[in-house]
Design a protein that fits this description.
single chain, mainly alpha
Length: 74
């Protein structure tokens, strides 16, 4: 018998009624403190990749500006 996963923060309004998995909602606490609300590994890797791309673009732009400044100064 497999149980369905509950979404973080979801609450049933009818406590004690049967849900789709056959479990009574009164078996689940109303607080969701036991759920870990956080970011997944994939989300963190995507953010790190985006930040890496942005840093490389800014670095390339700064190097080009330094070269132009050196040529102008010389």
């Amino acid at each position: 018998m497999s149980r369905k996963r509950r979404e973080v923060g979801s609450r049933k309004s009818e406590v004690g009624s049967k849900n789709g998995s056959g479990w009574s909602c009164s078996h689940f606490p109303l607080s969701t403190s036991h759920f870990r609300a956080g970011f997944t590994l994939v989300e963190l890797l995507v953010v790190i990749a985006i930040l890496g791309i942005l840093v490389s673009l800014v670095t390339a732009g700064a190097q080009a500006a330094r070269r132009r400044a050196a040529v102008t100064k010389a």
